[in-house]
Amino acid sequence: MTERPVLDLQKEIIHCHACPRLVAWREQVAEEKRAAFRDEEYWGRPVPGFGDPAARLLVVGLAPAAHGANRTGRMFTGDRSGDWLYAAMHRAGFASRPTSEYRGDGLRLTDAWVTAPVRCAPPQNRPKPRERDACAEWLSREFALLDRVRVAVILGGYGWTAFLRVLDGRGWDLPSPRPSFGHMARAELAGEGRKLSLVGSYHPSQQNTFTGRLTEAMFDEVWSTAGDLVDDGTVA
Predict the structure, then answer these.
(1) pLDDT tens for each residue of 185-204
(2) Per-residue exposure over 116-146, b if at least 16 CB sit within 10 Å of its own CB, e if not
(3) 101: enclosing H helix or E strand
(4) pLDDT digit string (tens) for 141-167?
(5) CA-to-CA distance for 181 and 105, rounded, in angstroms?
(6) Cα separations in angstroms, 39 against 16, 30, 96, 198
(7) Which of 63, 131, 164, 182 is least crowded, fewest Cβ atoms below 10 Å from its Cβ?
């Protein structure tokens, strides 16, 4: 796949104003700022996906953090969740460096694309169902453009459910009952002439990493499994 269609989609995403509550919140946060970042210019807009347009691995989170991606303009950048994510992806060979601090910091992803089902920071990190549904078009179109993707690492139950809804909307043949989320949950799916391996992981939020629910070893196992699946798969 060429880079241009993905870049065009990113531009569309950035200019979205579909959800009044999220628009008001993201802009309020960007105006008021956190004291530690008071001298920075916040992004304050929808956050597009980030990575390698030729990726075979898709990473799906939840939504931008108010003072993370909503500040920096890049998924999982500028917060503790991103510290965990990119450090693990670096150890697995998908990221050029272990930290993601700001756009233009030199981070490059290889064979991976990071995205989310909701593109604006939601209050209390809890999007409403109608906001998730309004945003589903972006993830659906993004997935269609990333036509080499054969493995998806889903960070958290919210992303797992939202991504399955996107696949269902695209006419994928999903089993009934649908695959349940869990850490290291696996599912093999097919649709639109391609196959997809899903791997579930607890989200690398502080709620999980500070409590020990998600450890570095557990997270590394996710990326080792994903890497093996990417290497074992073939792309026509």
Answers:
(1) 999 999 999 999 999 999 99
(2) bbbbbbbeeeebeeebbebbbebbbbbbebb
(3) none
(4) 999 999 999 999 999 999 999 999 999
(5) 34
(6) 26, 11, 28, 40
(7) 182
Q: Which two tokens stand for residue 201?
A: 């992981």
Q: What is the pLDDT of residues 21-75, one digit of tens each?
A: 999 999 999 999 999 999 999 999 999 999 999 999 999 999 999 999 999 999 9
How confident is the model at residue 1, as a pLDDT?
A: 53
- Helix 3-14 / helix 129-145 crossing angle, nearest 10 deg: 160
Set out the domains of the chain in order of their start, with CATH numbers. 3-232 (3.40.470.10)
Query: Is the previous residue joined to 48 through a cis bond, with omega within 30 degrees of 0?
Result: no
Query: With a threshold of 0.85, does the pTM exceed it?
Result: yes
Residue type, 17: H
Closest listed residue to residue 42, CA positions, set 32, 30, 34: 30
Q: Are 45 and 8 in contact (CB under 8 A)?
A: no
From residue 5, alpha-carbon distances to 18, 54, 116 in Å are: 22, 12, 18
DSSP 125-145: G---HHHHHHHHHHHHHHHHH
